[in-house]
């Protein structure tokens, strides 16, 4: 499967590295050329030597998405630090380029729920974090 990850921060880079290690074809798009360092970190070879692809560009620009391989993508992951950017590029991937499997990182729980109801596969770290804290509180209270 070809996985296109938009955003090479801590989350995007980790997901990209994991997908590449699982044998997927992986392309990463980020506007910061220095974010490439996260893809190389801790690897025995460079990101490209390991088979990864890296494109510098802004996710909301069609030319950057095309250069990163959106037309080949089986899975599109929007993992930038901005909810608006992630939601917009996820919709572009889905509606303009017909990528069926789109996963979008949304930090705002209310927006995450709403976009999930609209058909986007959302990941909300805030909701996951709250659930983990609640679980920890319950576990401690039962001691």
Could you explain how this protein is built, in words?
By secondary structure, the chain is an alpha/beta fold. The chain has a single domain (2-141), classed as NAD(P)-binding Rossmann-like Domain (Rossmann fold, 3-Layer(aba) Sandwich), CATH 3.40.50.720. The chain has helices at 10-21, 36-40, 62-68, 83-96, 109-117, 125-141; strands at residues 2-6, 25-30, 53-56, 75-78, 101-105, 121-123. The protein has a six-stranded parallel β-sheet with strand order 3-2-1-4-5-6, sandwiched between helices. Strand 4, helix 4 and strand 5 form a beta-alpha-beta unit.
DSSP strand count: 6
Q: Note the run of SSEs as H and E.
A: EHEHEHEHEHEH
Please list the strands of the largest sheet in the order they lie side by side: 3-2-1-4-5-6
Strand content: 15-25%
Q: What can be said about the biggest beta sheet?
A: 6 strands, parallel
Multimeric status of the protein: single chain
The helix tally amounts to 6
Task: Give the low-pLDDT segments.
Answer: none
Q: Provide the domain count.
A: 1
The secondary structure category is alpha/beta
Corresponding CATH architecture: 3-Layer(aba) Sandwich
CATH class: Alpha Beta
Question: Could you name the CATH homologous superfamily?
Answer: NAD(P)-binding Rossmann-like Domain
């Amino acid at each position: 499967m070809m996985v296109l990850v938009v955003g090479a921060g801590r989350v995007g880079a980790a997901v990209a590295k994991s997908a590449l290690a699982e044998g997927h074809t992986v392309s990463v798009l980020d506007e910061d050329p220095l974010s490439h360092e996260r893809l190389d970190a801790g690897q025995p070879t460079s990101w490209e030597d390991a088979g990864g692809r890296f494109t510098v560009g802004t996710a909301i620009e069609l030319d950057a998405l095309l250069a990163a391989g959106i037309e080949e993508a089986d899975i599109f992951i929007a993992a930038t630090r901005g909810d608006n950017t992630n939601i917009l590029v996820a919709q572009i991937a889905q509606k303009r380029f017909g990528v069926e499997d789109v996963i979008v990182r949304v930090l705002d729980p209310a927006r995450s729920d709403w976009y999930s109801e609209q058909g986007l596969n959302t990941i909300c770290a805030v909701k996951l974090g709250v659930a983990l804290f609640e679980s920890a509180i319950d576990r401690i209270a039962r001691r």
